[in-house]
Design goal:
By secondary structure, the protein is of the alpha+beta class. The protein has seven helices and 31 strands.
Length: 509
């Protein structure tokens, strides 16, 4: 027979009618006198209610012999053992009480945490509902506002609203998922030891033609497209093998002109104008899908769309450094509230959130999810290195490439700001006109000019030495090559370039 509190054999067993448990008499009497309740079920209990359990003659004799005054007086070891037993009983009683208190604390803590989680859920729902109501109120205000008096067949003046925190959170989550999936895409370098002897002329263009390139819907895995356009709005989209998908006919007011255009997919073009208009034009349907005005009178520098990240909206940047998210479903501009920064060129990272902005003297990178954070500035000494002519993110997502008239520098975005990923490529006796990288980041194509003659050169990436190595057997010379870009299909790479007043295609072998 063992005590319900200490778990030890009993000397004087006592039965409690409340919990129907057996206890050591000294332990239970001490507990009842202190607490006035049963230790098991906490019901009121008095000492008088305890029932002493009768012992057999053998148990009684043994108990008396062990606890007799004579034995205690004559022998010290039993006396010591008795004292130890009393101490043990006291410790067990205290341990029992502490276990009860711990169980009660666990119950209270669980209840408090449950209530806290419930309060957080309520607060989150209230915040989301507030943001939704603000957006609906803003749209309602626009609809009730007086109509604009400006006459234009294709341009509509819109009042900008602020990008909601809910939209930003969705973009962050989609960007993380897209970046995770894009890491699975591995691009191998295609053969490019020399240029084919056959140069194909795709079309003739006007002298003021510009050239841009972009990945289909912002996704490198879907291939690359090239766009040739002029100020009046004439456009041609070129892929690796297809030459042209259409031409924009005049869609602009007489006082406006195209300042930026970029291919969105095989038939659609993102465009911006010098007066702050921007939108999407479909070459096959020969019509504007949507058009907006962002900061009237400020030139649009960039319009770019990564559909996997921003869903039904593309990013717009104007010459003042203002940034907006153009929602094609709601047909409105959502302002990112960016600080002003004189911007000559801009580029959107493949994750859809990092934005590069630059001018002749300065280059900054900031994240669209938190424009309140200080932008990352990249060092550039304009006195010794000359003005910046172009800069953009590499398709691997890790590099930022900056080019001047005399050098190309590659920064590593994974390390501290201004850390070079490899040795700068310097052109001492030539002027750098244009450059592009293949998606494997193993090949660099440049156009250099010297003595009135333009030359296309090829550099291979030496990973061990961390520098670009020129391949002298690869060369193509022509007069006045203004720009180039690298496109590819499953088997071959091509260089599409503007040379004189022609669009040419060079196949790489």
């Amino acid at each position: 027979m063992f005590c319900a509190i200490s778990g030890k054999p009993l000397k004087k067993p006592v039965f409690s009618p409340k919990s129907k448990c057996v206890f050591e008499k000294s332990l239970i009497e001490s507990y009842v006198l202190q607490n006035g309740q049963d230790p098991i079920n906490k019901e009121p209990l008095s000492v008088d209610e305890l029932v002493e359990i009768a012992q057999t003659p053998e148990q009684y004799a043994m108990s008396n012999s062990v606890n007799s005054p004579t034995l205690k007086a004559n022998y010290s070891i039993p006396n010591l053992l008795s004292s130890l037993q009393d101490e043990w009983d006291a410790v067990m009683l205290e341990n029992f009480q502490l276990r009860q208190q711990l169980d009660a604390s666990k119950v209270e803590l669980s209840t408090a945490l449950y209530k806290f989680d419930a309060a957080m859920n309520v607060a989150t729902r209230a915040t989301l509902e507030t943001e939704k109501l603000k957006q609906e109120l803003s749209i309602l205000s626009q609809n009730l506002a007086p109509a604009q008096t400006e006459e234009s067949d294709v341009m509509e003046q819109e009042i900008s609203t602020v990008v909601s925190s809910e939209t930003i959170q969705k973009m962050i989550q989609k960007s993380q998922d897209f970046a995770k999936d894009s890491r699975k895409n591995k691009f191998r370098p295609l053969p490019c030891s020399k240029v084919s002897t056959e140069v194909e002329v795709l079309a003739e263009v006007t002298p003021n033609t510009e050239m841009t390139s972009a990945y289909v819907d912002g996704n490198i895995a879907r291939g690359k497209l090239v766009l040739f356009y002029n100020l009046e709005g004439s456009c041609k989209i070129v892929s690796a093998l297809k030459y042209e998908t259409g031409t924009i006919y005049t869609v602009l007011p007489e006082s406006d002109s195209i300042s930026f255009a970029e291919p969105l997919n095989e038939t659609q073009v993102l465009f911006g104008t010098k007066m702050g208009a921007h939108g999407i034009y479909d070459l096959s349907q020969q019509q504007t899908i949507n058009s907006l005005r962002f900061n009237e009178g400020r030139e649009i520098i960039m319009a770019s769309w990564v559909k996997e990240v921003s869903d039904h909206a593309y990013v717009v940047v104007d010459s003042s450094g203002a940034i907006a998210l153009a929602d094609v479903e709601q047909n409105c501009d959502l302002d990112f509230r960016a600080n002003e920064f004189p911007t000559y060129y801009a580029h959107l990272h493949k994750d859809g959130l990092l934005l590069l902005q630059g001018n002749d003297e300065k280059l900054i990178v900031q994240t669209l999810s938190d424009l309140q954070k200080p932008a990352i500035e990249f060092d550039h000494d304009i006195e010794s290195e000359g003005p910046i002519r172009s800069a953009r993110f590499a398709s691997n997502g890790y590099w930022l490439v900056l080019a001047t008239q005399k050098m190309i520098k590659v920064f590593d975005l994974r390390k501290k700001p201004n850390t070079l990923a490899l040795e700068a490529l310097v052109f001492e006796n030539e002027d750098l006109v244009s450059w592009d990288l293949d998606p494997s980041m193993k090949s660099l194509f440049v156009v250099v000019e010297s003595g009135g003659l333009s030359r296309v050169e090829f550099y291979s990436f030496d990973k061990s030495a961390k520098r670009w190595v020129q391949k002298p057997e690869f060369t193509y010379s022509s007069k006045n090559v203004q720009d180039l870009t690298y496109v590819w299909d499953s088997q071959s790479g091509f260089i599409k370039a503007l040379a004189e007043n022609e669009i040419i295609s060079l196949k790489l072998d």
